[in-house]
Amino acid sequence: MRPDVKHVLSVTQFDRQFLLQLFHRADEFAALPPREIAPVARGAIMATLFYEPSTRTRLSFEAAMTRLGGSVISAEYAASTSSAAKGESIEDTARVVAGYADLLVIRHPAAGSVARAAAVTDVPVINAGDGANEHPTQALIDLYTVWRECGRIDGLTVALVGDLRFGRAARSLARLLTQTVGTKIYLVAPPVTRMDPLLVEELRSAGLEVEEADDLVAIAPEVDVLYQTRIQRERFSDPDEYAAACGRYVVDQRLMRALPRHAIVLHPLPRVGEIDPEVDTDPRAAYFRQARNGVPLRMALIEWVLTPHPVTVLSTNGHRHA
Ligand code: ASP
Ligand code: CP
Fold this sequence. Notes:
The strands form 2 sheets. Strands 7-6-5-8-9 form a 5-stranded parallel beta sheet. Strands 2-1-3-4 form a 4-stranded parallel beta sheet, with helices on both faces. The protein is of the alpha/beta class. It has helices at 16-31, 56-67, 78-81, 90-97, 113-119, 136-150, 168-176, 197-205, 216-219, 239-245, 253-258, 287-292, 294-306, and strands at 45-50, 71-75, 103-108, 125-130, 157-161, 184-188, 209-212, 225-228, 264-266. The chain is 36% helix and 14% strand. The chain starts with 15 loop residues before the first helix and ends in a 16-residue tail after the last helix. It has 2 domains: 11-133 and 293-306, Aspartate/ornithine carbamoyltransferase (Rossmann fold); 136-291, 3-Layer(aba) Sandwich (Rossmann fold), CATH 3.40.50.1370. Helix 4 crosses helix 5 (113-119). The chain contains 13 helices and 9 strands. Bound molecules: aspartic acid and phosphoric acid mono(formamide)ester. The site of aspartic acid (ASP) has 7 residues, from helix 7.
C-alpha cells in the first residue's frame, strides 16, 4: 500500500483532532450555498463500486463529489453487472478501475475485501461497508451528528441497540467513540446479535465504560444518544435466528416517554420496523437529519482524501479555513 495515498478503511485510523477538524469543515460545507463551494475536485473522477444495495451511502458520496466539482462513474449493481459476475476478483477490478478514476468508493459483502482492493491500487479507496466488519464513513456521520445535535462528543451516555453482531455501522461507531472522553456505552441487543466479546474488550481497553443491558426502557432515562439499528437479515444463515432477533427492541412512544428531553435518537437507516414512524415528528428523532449530514461530511472527507496538503481556502468568496 503506498504510504502517500489516503485510504479510508477503518475508523481506527482517525484521532480526535482529525475528527474535530473534519466536523468543522463539514459544517462549513453545510453552511455554504452550492454556488460558493470551491470546486476542489474539478477534473477528478470518483468510481463507486457497490456489490451490495445502498441508497444513502452511494448517492450521498456521488452528491458530495458532484458538489465539489468532480465527476462520478458508477457500478451500482457491481455484483451482477460488473465482471465480478464472470468471476473477476475484487483486486483485479479495483486495479483496473483505479486506471479510470482518482478515487474508489467500494461496498462489498466480504469483511476485509475493501482493504484488499486498497492494497493493490495507487488511488485512494474508501470503505463504504465491508460485510459485517466496518462502515467507517457512516460512523463519521454519526459522530458528526452527535457533535451538531448535542454540542459535544464527550461525557455522553450512548445506547447502541439492535444488531451489534453483524451491524457494521454500530461496530464502527463503537470504535470511533474511543476517541471521546467520559463516554458510557450501553449495549442493548437480543442474545443472537450481541456484540463480539473481543470488540467489547477492545472498547474497554481503550477506556470506554461499557455495560450490557437487557431492559431498554429501564436505562432510557440515563441515555443522551440512542443509536437504533436494523437486524441485518442478509447476514443470517438461519431464518429462525433472524426472526428471534426481530421486534425485541422497538423505539416507540413508550420508549420516547422514558428518554430525557435533551436526548436524540439516531439510526443509520434503512429502518424496517425498529422505529415506529409515529416517533418521526418528535424533535428528538434525529435520523433524517443524520442522513442529510452525509453529504457535507463526505464532502469534507473527499476533500481531505484528494488534497495532498492542508487546504486553506474553502469557498470562492474568500472564506478562509485553517
Ligand atoms: N445502511 C447501513 C449499512 O449498510 C445500515 C443497515 O443497512 O442496516 O450498514
Ligand atoms: N446508512 C447506510 O449505509 O445506508 P445505505 O445502506 O442505504 O447506503
